[in-house]
Amino acid sequence: MSERGDITRSASRWERLTDPSRLAGIDLARGLAVLGMFAAHLYAVPGFVWTDASTWGGIVSGRSSILFATLAGVSLGLVTGRSTPYEGERLGTARRRIVVRAALLWVIGILLIATGVPVYVILPAYAILFLLALPFLQLRARPLFLIAVGVALVMPWVQAWIDSFDFWSTPGGGDVGLLLGINYPFPVWIAFVLAGLGAARSGLRRLSTQVALVCGGAALAVVGYGLDWLAPAVPDASLWAAVWTAEPHSSGLLEVVGSGGFALAAIGASLLLCRTVVSWVVLPLRAVGSMPLTAYVGQLVAWAIAASVLLDRVGDLTGFRALDPFGLFAVTAVVGCTAWALLVGRGPLEWAIDAIARRAVPGRPRSGAADPRR
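The structure assignment produced for this chain is given below.
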């Protein structure tokens, strides 16, 4: 292999990561979401209280996974036309490929659950959310945001009723819950995906869109968390207590509003930061965000292997956290993803899933460079 060929390929991989047509801020937001989920898994994080700096690490709890789900909606928007939704056969091809991707994500999620790693794997829920988003892919930003608001206001009440079923406390109910990713309940979480899809349809390259995401998301966060702070104490067993809360992973109304707003603001802030020289400073984080599935799956596989070697059982969460693995996992992810992006290119799982989906559903090839106004 010639030296000129090696240099050419290295340059092309560098250009892929730094291509102006690529939304660097979305990669940054994905990278932050992935590392936030690492921290939520590997630390016993405290409850977040904004007036107590010692608890600020708790910001990752719940919010990282909601950011991840909102970014799933953004990704769906980016692969189906950005600000101008695909139509006709092109949209049909995109939908069928998304179905294939969802099936593959679900299988990967079930395999990760089978390792016994003591976390709630998000991929089965992710797969179901992809399928639920299919009917909305042809919509533009305004109706998507309106539907997301409606879902956010109504479905926490429905989910609280579903959660009250005795079925979920049975062995069979527990298994079904794992298969459906019910700890990330799709009846509620589709609101985050639709909000992310709406953001993608709004033209993420526009400064006005980025500022609107920060301001609108921050306002929602203030409303959600502010109402939670002001809410009077209510009996824990009541429907009101289950819904009127911003507790992480509760899928309560105030969590949906507050953490959904936080996710939108984080996406907008990441896009704004990457309009500056900061984009180069955070390139390693962007590399993680360019292959979030590989980083997420790699973390859980490495966890399963390390725990099986170092501990009596893979499911010993307290014992594994006592090893203080977050720093090693985070540094390995950042260094490994950066090296892979620059030396090889696209993340291996991202490449494999895309290749399988394109092989399974032939169709119109990917268009050229994206319109920089979108």
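Interim note for the steering committee: Residues 367-374 have pLDDT under 50 and may be disordered. The radius of gyration is 20 Å.
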